[in-house]
Amino acid sequence: MGFSLLPSSPAFLAVFLLSFVTWCLHPEPILAITRHYKFDVCVMFFRSNIVMLQNVTRLCHTKSMVTVNGKFPGPRIVAREGDRLLIKVTNHVQNNISIHWHGIRQLRSGWADGPAYITQCPIKTGQSYVYNYTIVGQRGTLFWHAHISWLRSSLYGPIIILPKLGTPYPFAKPYKEVPIIFGEWFNADPEAIINQAMQTGGGPNVSDAYTINGLPGPLYNCSAKDTFKLKVKPGKTYLLRMINAALNDELFFGIANHTLTVVDVDAIYVKPFDTDTLLITPGQTTNVLLKTKPHHPNANFFMSAIPYMTGQGTFDNSTVSGILEYEYSHKTIQSSRSPKKLPLYKPNLPPLNDTSFAANFTSKLRSLASAEFPANVPQKVDRQFFFTVGLGTNPCSKNQTCKGPNGTRFAASINNLSFVMPTTALLQAHHFGQSNGVYNPIFPISPLIPFNYTGTPPNNTMVRNGTKLVVLPFNTSVELIMQDTSILGAESHPLHLHGFNFFVVGQGFGNFDPKKDPKNFNLADPVERNTVGVPSGGWVAIRFLADNPGVWFMHCHLEVHTSWGLKMAWVVLDGKLPNQKLLPPPADLPKC
Ligand SMILES: [Cu+2]
């Protein structure tokens, strides 16, 4: 790694590297990495990310948690479209680690995608891995997070992708840009929570708070001092880069007495539209413009998020709030009341189970579909897939008492197949022709036993278990219908596809009708994204072009459902041309 690997386009002005000295709890030598680059026209961060343990206090509970560089949330990555990132991750904790760069297309660089046992073996204690990839055709906000077990509860941070230098946004330049990253806080150790749940077969304990930029805010015990405050000036436009990094909860978000303009989702521009409330699922990002009031309003405003919850299990129904505060100009400061005495308004958010709001909101999202930012929706389809997504059960083993439904173990599945994680990485197995005994290449393209998916659920809720994948030739045009089921209750599932963006060409309630519903597909300006909510008791249709060779994970971004098996992977074969092939694996790729 080094100078020669960096982009040499004259468009880049300068590359600067963050140098830092960091420490960790291990009795190892202090690592200090300082690298300086001078280059043409670009801003690009080269970071050495050290995974470490850190004490953090929230809600009067102090615990040690795994962080990157001692920060919670973790450090920001800022780059421009076209930049290459080299991110050296060193693991100084006892847990195995891997980091996923959520939403980054990873064209031909699947080795850097990050999901453990899918594209790489985990980084073991004391080891390092350099994630090496280039950002192509994306601008907006994404995020990085751990992709192993539930470690992403504390290992996450923003990825900010600025347009190429000299290229403006397709909207007026904002006065300031602010990342707003939602998370979930557990007083207990999330690793212990999921390990216990997997042992008993029951549902895991829910979080104790939601957080905005790591802070729960004043509506929780002992937490007023841990409140995110956004200080703004009157008459300005702010770009809020919203990220849902929560583990298990879709969120409604709003700012009292203010309207938001949605301009970008999942690092793709959309046709702007105004809304008082946003819906953002785990794995989704949304850029919004916030226009402040022309004059100081003599009030403060809560910016709050609550869960959107459709399932039958218990959930964290608490409210996270930050505060939007207007700054006084020098002129007004004497004549006005002090900020503490100002009235504080709360946003009106929808009911926690407002599925019609969810459907209405998501149907407003449209691609820009302009000459500069076209929506390249596949117009013809080579392969069609119909996947049911939902919950199910696995039998309890003998001599055990299980806490799942009727003494079984909770499971989740796609086409009734609950994915079993391999013990070696799928991408290596595929690339080196060693898939025998690691995975089966025949994933069911539709349910083996069709039923009334959203009607009365079948009596038998048992899933099958296996490690099956879909294999696609390079450049296959794919249409995928994802159908929620009512097994153990209809529920919204935010499905995330690695390695691709897809177009959301249709959605609806009830069972998908293959004769009627495709007539209403939007093939002109559907939203393009990497994570979509399968509507509770409904279906969603997506299309994507399989133009990125590799092995690509697809899973529910409610982490508990992923733990239960709501996941699978696509193998995209190499194309014929040299630039259609997966690059060779890097020398430092971790071994299992
Ligand atoms: Cu799910």
Automatic annotation (TrEMBL):
Cofactor: Cu cation
TM helices/strands, residue ranges: none
A Pfam match: Cu-oxidase_2
Segments forming a coiled coil: none
Binding note for cofactor: Binds 4 Cu cations per monomer.
Keyword terms: Apoplast, Copper, Glycoprotein, Lignin degradation, Metal-binding, Oxidoreductase, Repeat, Secreted, Signal
GO cellular component: apoplast
All residue ranges annotated as the Plastocyanin-like domain in the record: 54-164, 177-327, 451-574
Gene Ontology MF annotations: copper ion binding; hydroquinone:oxygen oxidoreductase activity
EC id: 1.10.3.2
Domain of life: Eukaryota
Reactions catalysed according to its record: 4 hydroquinone + O2 = 4 benzosemiquinone + 2 H2O
Cleavable signal peptide: 1-32
BP GO annotations: lignin catabolic process
Compartments, as annotated in UniProt: Secreted, Extracellular space, Apoplast
Its biological purpose: Lignin degradation and detoxification of lignin-derived products.
Family classification: Belongs to the multicopper oxidase family.
Protein name: Laccase
